[in-house]
What does this fold into?
Amino acid sequence: MEIREIDKIKQEIYSCLENRRLNSAFKLLQKLFEGNNMSALKDETDRVKLSYNLMLQYMSHGIMDPQRDDVLQRIISTLYLITDQCVIALKENSSYDVFYARRRELASKPLHDLVDAW
It folds into this structure.
């Protein structure tokens, strides 16, 4: 996936989250996962989606939850975090930005060498 497409999807996800359109955000996240080995992020997204669906199910049954707004805000915050982690993982090998170049450079060095350099 090209960097421009990754950035476009990221912005679309952000827009969905800002407008509380979480189902759309989940669908867009799936686009980022396609063809990439990000099983931990995908599993975390599935866990968050399950929580969201349970919350919707409780609401549809008329169950009042005084912490619903807090739960919803945690779900949204987690989706922002997952989106950022996914974008970093996708861009890490192909972006020429200083951030990603430095990550590649540091990833190639053993941890003890980095610690000794400090």
